C-alpha cells in the first residue's frame, strides 16, 4: 500500500493501517497531534479510520486551523446530540453540521413538543458533565443499514453516505448511542475543553419546505477557554458588521412573512440609496454606449426551454403558472428577453457591438434555509446587460466591460477578494453543452484577454455557466461568505440556439457572440455589501439623509431651519429638520447613531449672521461658516461622489 503525503513523499506499508498508526510511523509526536486526515483531497476521516489502499493522505493537526476546527466542532456536535438524547429521550437526532464561516456546529432533531430556549440550558448542563468524564467514542465503517437501530432520519443519512462514498461511518458514544454524520467525528474527546450551546432555531428536514420543521441547536467548540473567547470576539465583530444588524439603525429594507420569505421591501431610505446608485450606473452605461431596454417580468416556458435554462436551472425557478392555453414562469434571467430584442429586426455588422442594458426585476426560488437578508433573496433587481459582438470584437469589448466595472467599483470603494476565471469540466457531460470546439475557443479567448490585462485570477474548473466561460469578481461578506459582485460571461451557445445572425461585410449571414454582463450584480446583494464594507457610514452622495438640521431657540430658529432646508432642496441635497421635544445633546447623539454625514445646529447667532454651524459624523468638532459656503461644500462632495 502506497501512501502519498502532502509534501509529495511516498510511504509504503505491507498492511492496512489506521490514520493514527500512519502518523505514528512518520513521527511519534505526530501520532498525538493527529485528529484525522483528508484522503485523496476530499474524503475527511477520523484518526481511527482504516486506510487499506493507495491514496494521497493529508494528516489533520492543529496546524491546519480551519480543518482542525471542523474536526473538533463536528465532534462537539455529536457529543451535544448525545447529551440531547440523554436529557430528552424522545428527541430524534437528524443531522450534524459544521459551518466554517461561523466557526459553529449545529445539529437538528425532531421532537413533538418544541423546546424552549431556556430548556437548552439543561442540555448544556449535560454537556458540561460529559466533558468532565471519559467519553468513549468509536467509529465503525458500514456498507449497509440493516440492524443498525437508527431512527428514520439517521437511516436516510446513512443511505446517502453509502450511495455517495460506498460506506457510512456509524459513531457509537459510550457504547449505547449511535449517530451517523457526513462530518468527521474524532475519537480524541479529551481535546475538547469548551462546548457552548448558543441558540435554538429551526430548519426543514433536507432543507425542503414540504418536509417537517426540525429544531436546530447551534454551538461553538474549542480546545481552550482562550480559543473560545477568540472565536466569540470574531463573531461579535462580524455581527456588528452584518448588514442585517446595520439595517436596524439605517432602516434600508424590511421583510414581511405575509408578503413572503426572501421578498425584500425597500423602505424610503433604501429606495433613495438604490435610486442614487441606479442613476449613477445609468450615467456610466450611457458613457459606455449602452442602450436601456425594459422587458416583462415573466416569460413562456417555451422561451426558457429554447434557451436551455429550463433544463439547467429548473430547480432555481419559481413554479410555472397557466393563463389560458399558455404556460409562464417568473423571469429568472433576462438573456432570452434581450435576444428577442436583437431578433426584432435584421442586423448588420455595422450595428455591432450592440449593448442592451436593463435594471431587471428577476425571481429565483432560493431555499428558505439559504435566505440571508439582502445577500440572498428570491426577488432581485439585476444590473444586467447583454452585448452582441462580432468575433473580431470580443477582446476589445471584454476590456471595455472590465474597465467599466473597475471604474464603478472604485467609485464605491468596494474591496475585492479575487477574480475567478470559471471554465467547464470536460468530463461533465450533463451540465455543459457538448461542443469542444466552441468551449476551447471561448476559454482561450477569455484567458488571453485576462493575461493581456495582467489580471491575477484563480482558474476554477467546473464552475462555468452551461453556455460558456466567465470571469466573476468575488468579495467576502461580514459573515465570511464568498459572493459574486460583478460578472462577465462569454456565450457562443445561445446565439446558436436562437439562430441569431447579422449580415457581414461580404453579405453573408454570420453568427454573433453574446456577452453577459452583471455590472454590480443585484442591487440587493450590492447594497448588503456596501453597508458591510462601510459599516453603514455611507459617503455623503449616497446617504439617504445627508444633513440633519437641529434648530435651537424656538420659532425663529425653526423658520431659519426651514429656509435652509429649502435652499438644500434647490441644490438637490437631502436634509431633515429635527423638531422633537428633546435635549440638543440627545438629538446630536441620535444623528450620530443614524450615521448622518452632517448635523447642523442653528440658533440666534446663525440667524443673525446667516451662517451654519456643523459637525461631521464621528467628530465632536463644530465649525461655523457662511451658509453659501456650506452649500458649495456639500454640493461639491456630492458631485465628486465623496
Written account of the structure:
This protein has 4 domains: about 1-60, Ubiquitin-like (UB roll) (Roll), CATH 3.10.20.30; about 65-240, Threonyl-tRNA Synthetase, Chain A, domain 2, CATH 3.30.980.10; about 265-530, 2-Layer Sandwich (BirA Bifunctional Protein, domain 2), CATH 3.30.930.10; about 540-640, 3-Layer(aba) Sandwich (Rossmann fold). Helix 12 (about 395-410) packs across helix 13. The chain contains 19 helices and 34 strands. The strands form 9 sheets. Strands 17-21-22-29-26-25-23-24 form an 8-stranded mixed sheet. A 5-stranded mixed sheet has the order 2-1-7-4-5. About 35% of the residues lie in helices and about 30% in strands.
Structural Rg: 30 Å
CATH topology label of the largest domain: BirA Bifunctional Protein, domain 2
Q: Helix coverage percent of residues?
A: 25-40%
Low-confidence parts: none
Identify the CATH homologous superfamily of the largest domain.
Bira Bifunctional Protein, Domain 2
Look at the structure and give the mean pLDDT.
Answer: 92
Major sheet: order of its strands? 17-21-22-29-26-25-23-24
CATH class of the largest domain: Alpha Beta
For the biggest sheet, the summary is: 8 strands, mixed
Share in β-strands: 25-35%
Instruction: Please give the domain count.
Output: 4
Structural class, from secondary structure content? alpha+beta
Sum up the overall morphology in one term.
globular
Number of strands: 34
Tell me the CATH architecture of the largest domain: 2-Layer Sandwich
C-alpha end-to-end distance: 64 Å
Number of alpha- plus pi-helical segments? 19
